[in-house]
Every structure is written in C-alpha cells, then in structure tokens.
Amino acid sequence: MAGAGEAPVITCAEVGSFAWSVLAKRHPALVRQVREATPYPPELARALDVLLRECEAGVITPLPEGAHDGDRWAAWSTGRLGRTWFEVPFLWSESYFYRRLLEALGYFRPGPWQGVDPFAPFKRAELDSPEVAEELAALDTVSQLPPDEQDQALLTGALWGNKADLGFRISSGDPGGKGEHLVADDSAAMWRHLVSSPPGAVYVLADNAGRELIPDLLLVDHLLHTGRAAAVVLHVKPQPYYVSDATTADVLDCVRRIADAPGHAGIVGGRLRDALTGGRLAVHAHPFSCAPLPYAEMPDDLRADLAQATLTISKGDLNYRRLVGDRRWPGTTPFADLTAGFPTPVLALRTLKSDVAVGLAPDTLAELEASGEEWRTSGTYAVMHFRG
Which residues form the Damage-control phosphatase ARMT1-like metal-binding domain (predicted)? Predict the structure, then answer.
C-alpha cells in the first residue's frame, strides 16, 4: 500500500473518540444483548463477564493453549498482548474482541455450543422484518425501469444497504430517516469498465448479512442476468464476526428469503438458487476475511484467487478500512494510490461509519468539515470509489 507509514494508525486511546466509544460503549452493550438473546449456561455467561472486565480495565491476554486458529492469532498478536485494549490499533482490538467472544461462548470447542452463532437471533429477526418485505416488493417496480436506471437502482441499493449494520446500530441507533449523502461517485467509470471488459468473474467481498446482503445478492443476480459477469464469487466470513457479518449460512438464509417472496423477487431468488447449484455463483470463506490486517498483507493464495476477477466489489466500512489502511489519512488522499497493490480493479461501496476517509474532492472535504456534523461516523454519508 502506498505511503503506509505516512499517516498514524487509529487506536482507541483518545477518550471520547469514535474508536474509544466502540470499546467503551458498543462492546459492553453487545455483550449484554448477546446474553439476553440466548439462554447461555452459567459457565459461558461467566466467561463473557471475564472478557468484558478485561476489555474495560485489564490487559490483553492470549487465546487458550490449543485454541482453534491459535497459531494465526499468536502471529497477529505480536506486540499486542499484555497491553490495554485502548492503546493497540483499533482494527486489531475490534477483531480480537470478536474472536475472544466466540472463544468465551465455546463456538470452536467440541460440545453442545460448538458452531452456534451468537448473533443469529439478531440476523433472523432482521430477515423477518417488514422493511425486508418492502424492499423485496420494490423489485417489481425496479424490474420495469430502463436498463441504465435498473443498473443504478440496484447498485445504489447495495450501497445504502450498508446502513443495515446491527453492530453499528447497537451504539449509534438506526439512521433510519436521516438524510443520505453520496460524497464521491465513481460508478460511471465502473460500468464503463464492465462494458469494455469481456464477461468474466466478478468478486464480491461481502459485509453484513440480512438487510445488507439481500441487496448485494440482487446486484449479483443483475450482473449475472445482464451478462456483465460470467460468474460471481462471493467472499464471506468463515465464522460469525462483527455482529452481522455474513457467513455461508447467512447467504443461504437470504437466498431462501428472496426466493420465498412474491412477485419479481421470487424470480430473482430462483435464479440465485440456480446460479449456486450451477456454479455461476460460488461462495468462498477464507480465514483472512477475519484477520485484523489490511488487504495489503493478504496471503498469496487469497491474492491468487482475487487476481482472477475482472472486478472486485468491496462492501462496507470494515472492508474499506482494510483496503486503504485504518489510518488517519488526509481526506483528499487518492483512493487509487492506497489501493494500487490490490490485484484487481476494485469498486468500494461504503457508508462512512468510522474515522477513515479518503478520495474526497478538496471542496467536498471542506464543506463536510464545515458542516459541524459527525459525517465520518454517522452512517449517512457514503462513497462509491473505483480504481480501474
């Protein structure tokens, strides 16, 4: 990544900062919600309490001896253990918190709680919500639009679906009816790239499940159905992560929800099922998807996989932070410079929910800074950045 040493890494050390609030407020609220959503036995509830006390006032301790992926985390934790959670890089502390949460709840250990997603109750409730039904019903109207308007409607749907982030809503509240502002839009260049390229594989780095993953899958179907993509590879998380991040099980739940809907949505759901069974839509779950590292440090096998894409679509705030580096870059730093090492052309669809902001025009940045709003973290501002 270009200039990686030129901007300071974001930590949670500054009291009152957004990163600090995630550790000090969001994580305790999340632990309480997880405990309330599922009747965990006393030993697992106590393990959650131990984790919470450590996060709030203790120092970082390692995973137990012999833990699943313990060797990987030992390498990723060099220089972090024994320090407080607030003084290490924000990206690392967030990721390690979720890994430790799974450890506390016995997700990887043989026994009755192995493989039980602690966030599943939240995800299921969202899929059953009236908002999802309304969004799927809107496909009847979208399907009647001219082709270029369909393109933009489905792309915009995937962009603003990123607001449907359960972890974000725990601490910030659902942005709901607040205004939405697109402050950088390279989508025209992305469409030109797809039109000028022979149909190939489009890769999608998924973010959240539920209300976000559904519009992502609608866009995937659109790319396949219109011939812009010969195949789509959807990269999801190999385990529950960041409350609502999508796993393979979440993909299947969403495809089923779309297919069960009336109207045009049911047709799309049927096409998605056929794409999965026919191999035109594949699901990958690489361990690096849950790594506390930027994509500049991806392993060779993942780089070789992504290099097959004619386009990679990166969804969400976390993937964006990993694309450009979780650092305090000047807001006008070119997105293309920071993603120059990524192995394919890349489109980032991201609503802003953390302090990282790049690729903004100088006048746009000046206007945002003068607004007095918490525009970097409110979830109501968004970018569509493309590097061809």
Answer: 24-361
Integer Cα distance of 252 and 244 in angstroms: 15
pLDDT tens-digit map of 331-376: 999 999 999 999 999 999 999 999 999 999 999 999 999 999 999 9
Closest CA to 231 of 152, 348, 344, 311: 311
* Strand partners of residue 245: 208
As given in the structure block, the two tokens for residue 113 are 């709680």
* Interacting residues of 208 by C-beta distance below 8 A, sequence separation 6+: 161, 162, 164, 165, 166, 244, 245, 246, 315, 316
**CATH number of the CATH domain containing 224:** 3.40.50.10880
Interior angle at CA 223, CA 315 and CA 379, nearest 5? 25
Output the pLDDT for position 163. 72
pLDDT reading at 170 higher than 90: no
Tell me: the pLDDT tens digits for 57-101?
889 999 999 999 999 999 999 999 999 999 999 999 999 999 999
pTM > 0.90: yes
Question: Are 126 and 99 in a shared domain?
Answer: no
Could you give the CA distance from residue 382 to residue 124 in angstroms, rounded to a whole number? 26
- Residue closest to 162 by CA, chosen among 387, 386, 378, 388: 378
Domain span including residue 28: 18-104
Residue 116 placed within a domain:
no
Do 99 and 159 lie in a common domain? no
Q: Is residue 114 part of a domain?
A: no
The answer to whether residues 89 and 10 touch, using CB atoms and an 8 Å cutoff, is yes
Beta-sheet pairing, 229-235 with 200-205: parallel
Report, as an integer, the average pLDDT of 154-170.
73
- Boundary (domain end) residue, out of 77, 104, 131: 104
d(CA 387, CA 275): 28
246/213 Cα distance (integer angstroms): 7
Confidence of residue 161 (pLDDT cuts 50, 70, 90): confident
Residue 276 has pLDDT above 60, yes or no: yes
Our count of domains for the chain comes to 2
State the DSSP string of 108-164. Answer: SSSSTTTT--TTHHHHHHHHTSHHHHHHHHTHHHHTTS-HHHHHHHHHHHHHHGGG-
